[in-house]
Write a structure and sequence with these properties.
With 403 residues, the protein is an alpha+beta fold. The chain is built from 14 helices and 11 strands. It folds into 3 domains: 196 residues, Triger factor/SurA peptide-binding fold (Orthogonal Bundle), CATH 1.10.4030.10; 106 residues, Chitinase A, domain 3, CATH 3.10.50.40; 96 residues, Chitinase A, domain 3 (Roll), CATH 3.10.50. The longest helix is centred in the C-terminal third of the chain and has 30 residues.
Length: 403
Amino acid sequence: MIRCASAVFAAILPLLVPATGSSLQITSAISVNGASISDFDIEQRVRMLAALGITGNLQQIAEDALINDRLYLQESERLGISVSESMIATGLREYAGRRNQTSEAFLNFMSSQGVLEQSLTEFIRAGVAWRSVVNRRFAGEAREISEDEIDRALALRGSERRQQILLSEVAMAYRPATRERVIGIANSIVNSVKSAGEFADAARSLSDSETAGQGGAIGWVSVDSLPADAREKLLGAPIGVAVGPVVSDNAIFVFFKRDTKEIEVDGRSFETDHATLRVYGDGQNDAKRRAQAIIRRVDTCNDLLAESRIYPKGSYFRRTTGPDNSIEEIKAPLELLDAGEAMLLPSAGSSTGSIVLLMLCERKPVLEPEDRQAVLQALRSEKIEELAQDLITDLRASAIIDR
């Protein structure tokens, strides 16, 4: 559905893994509309991908990403867009920040994996250039979001299925001097643990977390609450395997994916438009009989108003209450009703022979102005991302690419 605005930039800089040996056998070189991609460029991107934990055919991923980078830069040049050093520094800071690192720490980490600062800078340069291209070309179109589109998005946002993962963890603290050793232990856990029981044993003996005593068991965790690096790895892993390492500023984690499930969540707040009618009769039983007959006849609160005209003034009352409804007598019953439904409130009767009928007129989500603005921005970002994907597809289709 709707993705946050940062998803656009995240999609721009995703295609970036340490070489597993010191001799990467990469022989291909590529030309994109005359712009060269060297064997060294490909080797550097492969190392970058590996350092970021990307899996798969890394050379193919690297080549595709570098082709896109050349097209990003060529399109930005065609539009007269230049990328300044300050723009690159900002882009690097944003990218490192998504990994909970400073620019300096991120550069140092990449250097330790054999990635040169120049290679990383060129990667950032291409991403920043592409973001400028996309904004230049599509910002106007993205502003054309109708009120109906916002309303539909709000309705969808109110009821969505969210994935949860049942996790256990091994969390090991480290210092700069022990970082590589702890990463080695984490990799050993990933490679050797074959069951939840084995992982629990590892957690009890190795984890520095307070969950160690319970075999590392965390419980059900929302996918959305996980750091991006952990989320990416866990979503791609099958149930029953150890996943990691995931590196934070002061600890290295290994997770065990025990199970997954989806839950339906409605995070919206509602206000309720409802009406009551005090129905009188010859005693309590007669009042109840009359009220039940009215329930069978009415479909809306306006119908109920019409029925009220035979009763004393003030018998009918309609109001709207917010999410923090403090009228305890009707709060729980209202939660049981759909719009147009009614029920009796026996506790509201009196010795004079009456009973109160409660009807839900409408249940409406409470929307603050900033809610609509946030959805508008998300829809614009989503539209820009779709247009950007269409553009790079077209650029690749028309490019002269020699391998």
